Protein backbone atom coordinates (compact mmCIF):
# COMPACT_ATOMS: atom_id res chain seq x y z
CA UNK A 1 0.00 0.00 0.00
CA UNK A 2 1.26 3.50 -0.88
CA UNK A 3 1.82 5.75 2.14
CA UNK A 4 1.78 9.56 2.28
CA UNK A 5 2.48 12.26 4.83
CA UNK A 6 1.01 15.72 4.31
CA UNK A 7 2.84 18.37 6.32
CA UNK A 8 1.34 21.83 6.48
CA UNK A 9 1.65 25.20 8.19
CA UNK A 10 -1.58 27.17 8.57
CA UNK A 11 -2.66 30.02 10.83
CA UNK A 12 -6.19 30.85 9.75
CA UNK A 13 -7.20 27.48 8.32
CA UNK A 14 -6.94 28.08 4.55
CA UNK A 15 -3.96 25.80 3.96
CA UNK A 16 -5.36 23.32 6.48
CA UNK A 17 -8.58 23.02 4.41
CA UNK A 18 -6.57 22.21 1.30
CA UNK A 19 -4.35 19.76 3.22
CA UNK A 20 -7.39 17.82 4.47
CA UNK A 21 -9.05 17.90 1.04
CA UNK A 22 -5.96 16.30 -0.49
CA UNK A 23 -5.82 13.81 2.40
CA UNK A 24 -9.50 12.93 1.84
CA UNK A 25 -8.85 12.08 -1.80
CA UNK A 26 -5.76 10.07 -0.89
CA UNK A 27 -7.87 8.15 1.63
CA UNK A 28 -10.51 7.47 -1.05
CA UNK A 29 -7.79 6.09 -3.33
CA UNK A 30 -6.63 3.68 -0.62
CA UNK A 31 -3.48 5.59 0.35
CA UNK A 32 -2.35 5.15 3.93
CA UNK A 33 -1.91 8.79 4.95
CA UNK A 34 -1.11 11.07 7.85
CA UNK A 35 -1.78 14.84 7.91
CA UNK A 36 0.41 16.81 10.31
CA UNK A 37 0.64 20.48 11.28
CA UNK A 38 4.29 21.52 11.15
CA UNK A 39 4.16 22.29 14.88
CA UNK A 40 3.46 18.61 15.62
CA UNK A 41 5.85 17.23 13.02
CA UNK A 42 8.81 16.94 15.41
CA UNK A 43 6.79 14.47 17.55
CA UNK A 44 6.16 12.09 14.63
CA UNK A 45 9.32 12.03 12.46
CA UNK A 46 8.59 8.46 11.34
CA UNK A 47 5.45 9.74 9.56
CA UNK A 48 7.43 11.74 7.01
CA UNK A 49 10.78 9.93 7.15
CA UNK A 50 9.29 6.60 6.03
CA UNK A 51 6.33 7.53 3.77
CA UNK A 52 6.45 7.00 0.00
CA UNK A 53 5.07 10.49 -0.69
CA UNK A 54 5.66 13.71 1.26
CA UNK A 55 3.43 16.75 0.67
CA UNK A 56 4.34 20.20 2.02
CA UNK A 57 1.75 22.99 2.22
CA UNK A 58 2.01 26.58 3.48
CA UNK A 59 0.55 30.07 3.03
CA UNK A 60 2.47 32.37 0.70
CA UNK A 61 4.25 35.11 2.68
CA UNK A 62 5.38 38.02 0.49
CA UNK A 63 5.61 35.80 -2.57
CA UNK A 64 7.64 32.98 -0.99
CA UNK A 65 7.22 30.14 1.53
CA UNK A 66 7.48 31.29 5.18
CA UNK A 67 11.20 31.00 6.12
CA UNK A 68 10.59 28.46 8.90
CA UNK A 69 8.87 26.16 6.35
CA UNK A 70 11.96 26.40 4.13
CA UNK A 71 14.17 25.56 7.12
CA UNK A 72 12.03 22.47 7.77
CA UNK A 73 12.24 21.34 4.12
CA UNK A 74 16.03 21.74 4.15
CA UNK A 75 16.26 19.14 6.93
CA UNK A 76 14.17 16.49 5.12
CA UNK A 77 15.81 13.45 3.51
CA UNK A 78 14.33 12.53 0.14
CA UNK A 79 16.24 9.33 -0.70
CA UNK A 80 14.53 9.24 -4.10
CA UNK A 81 11.02 9.45 -2.63
CA UNK A 82 8.16 11.46 -4.15
CA UNK A 83 7.09 14.92 -2.96
CA UNK A 84 4.62 17.61 -3.90
CA UNK A 85 3.98 21.20 -2.78
CA UNK A 86 0.90 23.35 -2.31
CA UNK A 87 0.26 26.90 -1.19
CA UNK A 88 -2.70 29.14 -0.43
CA UNK A 89 -2.44 32.86 -1.16
CA UNK A 90 -4.65 35.88 -0.81
CA UNK A 91 -5.33 36.21 -4.53
CA UNK A 92 -2.63 38.83 -5.14
CA UNK A 93 0.40 36.70 -5.96
CA UNK A 94 1.70 33.26 -5.07
CA UNK A 95 5.05 34.53 -6.36
CA UNK A 96 7.80 31.93 -6.43
CA UNK A 97 6.54 30.09 -3.36
CA UNK A 98 5.92 26.76 -5.13
CA UNK A 99 9.14 27.06 -7.09
CA UNK A 100 11.29 27.71 -4.00
CA UNK A 101 9.74 24.86 -2.00
CA UNK A 102 9.97 22.41 -4.93
CA UNK A 103 13.57 23.37 -5.66
CA UNK A 104 14.53 22.81 -2.01
CA UNK A 105 12.80 19.41 -2.00
CA UNK A 106 14.54 18.44 -5.21
CA UNK A 107 17.91 19.43 -3.70
CA UNK A 108 17.09 17.19 -0.72
CA UNK A 109 16.73 14.21 -3.05
CA UNK A 110 12.97 14.13 -3.69
CA UNK A 111 11.29 13.55 -7.05
CA UNK A 112 8.83 16.43 -7.41
CA UNK A 113 5.41 15.25 -8.58
CA UNK A 114 3.76 18.67 -8.90
CA UNK A 115 2.53 21.85 -7.28
CA UNK A 116 -0.83 23.45 -6.49
CA UNK A 117 -1.73 27.03 -5.62
CA UNK A 118 -5.13 27.89 -4.23
CA UNK A 119 -6.68 31.33 -3.84
CA UNK A 120 -7.85 31.97 -0.30
CA UNK A 121 -9.05 34.65 2.08
CA UNK A 122 -6.20 37.14 2.52
CA UNK A 123 -5.29 37.09 6.21
CA UNK A 124 -2.85 40.03 6.14
CA UNK A 125 -4.27 42.49 8.74
CA UNK A 126 -5.16 45.27 6.29
CA UNK A 127 -6.69 42.72 3.88
CA UNK A 128 -8.84 41.22 6.63
CA UNK A 129 -10.84 44.38 7.14
CA UNK A 130 -10.96 44.97 3.39
CA UNK A 131 -12.35 41.41 3.12
CA UNK A 132 -10.00 40.58 0.25
CA UNK A 133 -10.86 37.23 -1.33
CA UNK A 134 -13.41 36.44 1.36
CA UNK A 135 -15.05 33.03 0.94
CA UNK A 136 -12.05 31.36 -0.70
CA UNK A 137 -11.09 28.60 -0.91
CA UNK A 138 -14.55 27.83 -2.24
CA UNK A 139 -16.06 24.59 -3.53
CA UNK A 140 -14.41 25.02 -6.93
CA UNK A 141 -10.99 25.59 -5.33
CA UNK A 142 -11.39 22.47 -3.21
CA UNK A 143 -12.64 20.38 -6.13
CA UNK A 144 -9.50 21.44 -8.01
CA UNK A 145 -7.40 20.44 -4.99
CA UNK A 146 -8.99 16.98 -5.10
CA UNK A 147 -8.29 16.71 -8.81
CA UNK A 148 -4.67 17.66 -8.09
CA UNK A 149 -4.46 14.91 -5.44
CA UNK A 150 -5.61 12.30 -7.95
CA UNK A 151 -3.07 13.51 -10.55
CA UNK A 152 -0.30 13.39 -7.95
CA UNK A 153 -1.06 9.74 -7.19
CA UNK A 154 -1.07 8.91 -10.91
CA UNK A 155 2.33 10.61 -11.35
CA UNK A 156 3.69 8.68 -8.36
CA UNK A 157 2.47 5.31 -9.63
CA UNK A 158 3.87 6.02 -13.12
CA UNK A 159 7.17 7.26 -11.63
CA UNK A 160 6.81 10.62 -13.36
CA UNK A 161 7.86 14.03 -12.09
CA UNK A 162 8.36 17.67 -13.03
CA UNK A 163 11.33 20.02 -12.93
CA UNK A 164 10.93 22.64 -10.15
CA UNK A 165 11.34 25.32 -12.85
CA UNK A 166 7.88 24.36 -14.17
CA UNK A 167 6.49 25.97 -10.99
CA UNK A 168 8.36 29.26 -11.42
CA UNK A 169 6.17 32.36 -11.56
CA UNK A 170 5.61 34.36 -14.75
CA UNK A 171 5.11 37.52 -12.64
CA UNK A 172 7.81 40.06 -13.77
CA UNK A 173 8.66 41.06 -10.17
CA UNK A 174 9.57 37.47 -9.28
CA UNK A 175 11.38 36.80 -12.56
CA UNK A 176 13.52 39.90 -11.95
CA UNK A 177 14.34 38.87 -8.39
CA UNK A 178 14.84 35.13 -8.88
CA UNK A 179 18.62 35.20 -8.48
CA UNK A 180 18.61 37.57 -5.48
CA UNK A 181 18.58 36.66 -1.76
CA UNK A 182 14.95 36.15 -0.71
CA UNK A 183 15.39 38.30 2.39
CA UNK A 184 16.15 41.30 0.15
CA UNK A 185 13.15 40.76 -2.13
CA UNK A 186 10.82 40.13 0.80
CA UNK A 187 12.26 43.21 2.53
CA UNK A 188 11.35 45.37 -0.47
CA UNK A 189 7.71 44.23 -0.18
CA UNK A 190 7.60 44.34 3.61
CA UNK A 191 8.79 47.91 3.92
CA UNK A 192 5.78 49.05 1.89
CA UNK A 193 3.03 47.27 3.82
CA UNK A 194 4.33 46.25 7.25
CA UNK A 195 2.56 48.05 10.08
CA UNK A 196 3.49 48.44 13.74
CA UNK A 197 1.89 46.35 16.46
CA UNK A 198 0.87 48.36 19.51
CA UNK A 199 0.71 46.45 22.80
CA UNK A 200 -1.68 48.00 25.32
CA UNK A 201 -0.85 46.39 28.69
CA UNK A 202 -3.99 47.84 30.29
CA UNK A 203 -6.19 45.72 28.01
CA UNK A 204 -4.17 42.52 28.40
CA UNK A 205 -6.04 39.61 30.02
CA UNK A 206 -2.77 37.65 30.39
CA UNK A 207 -4.53 34.71 28.76
CA UNK A 208 -1.38 33.83 26.78
CA UNK A 209 -3.34 32.95 23.64
CA UNK A 210 -0.78 35.00 21.73
CA UNK A 211 2.10 33.01 23.22
CA UNK A 212 0.45 29.67 22.36
CA UNK A 213 -0.21 30.68 18.75
CA UNK A 214 3.19 32.20 17.95
CA UNK A 215 4.92 29.89 15.42
CA UNK A 216 8.40 31.08 16.37
CA UNK A 217 8.01 31.03 20.17
CA UNK A 218 9.06 34.67 20.28
CA UNK A 219 6.55 35.52 23.02
CA UNK A 220 7.43 34.64 26.62
CA UNK A 221 5.57 34.92 29.94
CA UNK A 222 6.39 38.03 31.91
CA UNK A 223 5.26 38.98 35.43
CA UNK A 224 1.83 40.38 34.61
CA UNK A 225 1.72 40.26 30.82
CA UNK A 226 3.56 38.58 27.94
CA UNK A 227 6.92 39.85 26.71
CA UNK A 228 7.39 40.27 22.96
CA UNK A 229 10.82 39.91 21.41
CA UNK A 230 9.43 40.61 17.91
CA UNK A 231 12.10 38.34 16.43
CA UNK A 232 9.23 36.65 14.58
CA UNK A 233 9.78 34.65 11.38
CA UNK A 234 13.22 35.90 10.31
CA UNK A 235 12.00 39.31 11.47
CA UNK A 236 8.84 38.97 9.36
CA UNK A 237 5.59 39.42 11.26
CA UNK A 238 2.78 36.95 10.66
CA UNK A 239 0.34 38.87 12.95
CA UNK A 240 -1.21 35.69 14.36
CA UNK A 241 -0.82 37.14 17.88
CA UNK A 242 -2.88 40.18 16.81
CA UNK A 243 -5.55 38.02 15.16
CA UNK A 244 -6.08 35.78 18.17
CA UNK A 245 -5.88 38.36 20.98
CA UNK A 246 -9.31 38.32 22.66
CA UNK A 247 -8.65 41.39 24.78
CA UNK A 248 -7.80 43.77 21.91
CA UNK A 249 -4.51 44.41 23.70
CA UNK A 250 -2.61 43.92 20.45
CA UNK A 251 -3.51 46.39 17.75
CA UNK A 252 -2.19 46.68 14.22
CA UNK A 253 -1.39 50.18 13.03
CA UNK A 254 -1.87 50.32 9.27
CA UNK A 255 1.07 52.02 7.56
CA UNK A 256 -0.75 53.24 4.45
CA UNK A 257 -4.32 54.15 3.52
CA UNK A 258 -6.67 51.46 2.22
CA UNK A 259 -6.58 53.13 -1.20
CA UNK A 260 -2.76 53.03 -1.34
CA UNK A 261 -2.76 49.45 -0.08
CA UNK A 262 -5.17 48.28 -2.78
CA UNK A 263 -3.09 50.10 -5.42
CA UNK A 264 0.05 48.36 -4.17
CA UNK A 265 -1.58 44.92 -4.34
CA UNK A 266 -2.81 45.63 -7.85
CA UNK A 267 0.70 46.67 -8.90
CA UNK A 268 2.23 43.34 -7.91
CA UNK A 269 -0.70 41.05 -8.71
CA UNK A 270 -0.37 37.94 -10.88
CA UNK A 271 -2.02 38.09 -14.29
CA UNK A 272 -5.27 36.11 -14.77
CA UNK A 273 -3.23 33.65 -16.89
CA UNK A 274 -0.75 33.08 -14.04
CA UNK A 275 -3.61 32.61 -11.55
CA UNK A 276 -5.20 30.09 -13.88
CA UNK A 277 -2.10 27.87 -13.65
CA UNK A 278 -3.62 26.48 -10.49
CA UNK A 279 -1.71 23.25 -10.61
CA UNK A 280 1.19 21.82 -12.52
CA UNK A 281 1.61 18.05 -12.73
CA UNK A 282 3.31 15.80 -15.33
C1 LIG B 1 2.94 37.88 6.45
C2 LIG B 1 1.96 37.59 5.36
C3 LIG B 1 2.34 37.73 4.02
C4 LIG B 1 1.44 37.44 2.99
N1 LIG B 1 1.85 37.57 1.69
C5 LIG B 1 0.99 37.30 0.68
C6 LIG B 1 1.41 37.41 -0.69
O1 LIG B 1 2.57 37.67 -1.00
N2 LIG B 1 0.49 37.20 -1.66
C7 LIG B 1 -0.81 36.87 -1.36
O2 LIG B 1 -1.60 36.74 -2.31
N3 LIG B 1 -1.22 36.69 -0.09
C8 LIG B 1 -0.36 36.89 0.94
N4 LIG B 1 -0.76 36.71 2.25
C9 LIG B 1 -2.06 36.08 2.52
C10 LIG B 1 -1.93 34.59 2.85
O3 LIG B 1 -1.03 33.95 1.96
C11 LIG B 1 -3.30 33.85 2.74
O4 LIG B 1 -4.28 34.51 3.48
C12 LIG B 1 -3.17 32.40 3.16
O5 LIG B 1 -4.23 31.69 2.58
C13 LIG B 1 -3.21 32.19 4.68
O6 LIG B 1 -3.18 30.80 4.92
P1 LIG B 1 -3.58 30.10 6.30
O7 LIG B 1 -5.02 30.41 6.59
O8 LIG B 1 -3.37 28.65 6.02
O9 LIG B 1 -2.65 30.62 7.34
C14 LIG B 1 0.11 37.01 3.29
C15 LIG B 1 -0.27 36.89 4.64
C16 LIG B 1 0.63 37.17 5.66
C17 LIG B 1 0.20 37.03 7.09
S1 LIG C 1 -3.61 37.24 23.66
FE1 LIG C 1 -3.88 39.43 24.11
S2 LIG C 1 -4.92 39.44 26.07
FE2 LIG C 1 -4.07 37.40 25.87
S3 LIG C 1 -2.01 37.54 26.84
FE3 LIG C 1 -1.73 37.98 24.67
S4 LIG C 1 -1.83 40.21 24.54
FE4 LIG C 1 -2.72 39.66 26.50
S1 LIG D 1 3.80 38.36 14.59
FE1 LIG D 1 3.22 37.62 16.62
S2 LIG D 1 2.59 35.46 16.33
FE2 LIG D 1 3.72 36.09 14.49
S3 LIG D 1 5.83 35.45 14.88
FE3 LIG D 1 5.67 37.59 15.55
S4 LIG D 1 5.17 37.52 17.75
FE4 LIG D 1 4.77 35.48 16.87
TrEMBL record:
- Flavodoxin-like domain location is 4-153
The record, for InterPro entries, names: 4Fe4S_Fe-S-bd, 4Fe4S_Fe_S_CS, EFR1-like, Flavodoxin/NO_synth, Flavodoxin_CS, Flavoprotein-like_sf
The record's annotation in SUPFAM superfamilies points to: 4Fe-4S ferredoxins, Flavoproteins
Q: Which residues cross the membrane?
A: none
Q: Where does the record place the 4Fe-4S ferredoxin-type domain?
A: 195-224
* Recorded GO MF terms: electron transfer activity; FMN binding; oxidoreductase activity
In terms of domain of life, where is this protein from? Archaea
Which Pfam families does this UniProt record tie to the protein?
Fer4_10, Flavodoxin_1
Q: What is this protein called?
A: Flavodoxin
Q: Which organism is it from?
A: Methanocella paludicola (strain DSM 17711 / JCM 13418 / NBRC 101707 / SANAE)
Amino acid sequence: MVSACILYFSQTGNTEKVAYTIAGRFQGEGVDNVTLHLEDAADFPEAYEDSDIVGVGFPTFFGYPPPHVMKFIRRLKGKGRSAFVFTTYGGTTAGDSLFDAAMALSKRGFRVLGGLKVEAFDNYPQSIWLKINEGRPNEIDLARSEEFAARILKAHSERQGIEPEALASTNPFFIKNRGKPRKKTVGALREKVEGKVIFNKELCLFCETCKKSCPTKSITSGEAHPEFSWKCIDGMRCYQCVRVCPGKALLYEQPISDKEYKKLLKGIADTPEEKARAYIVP
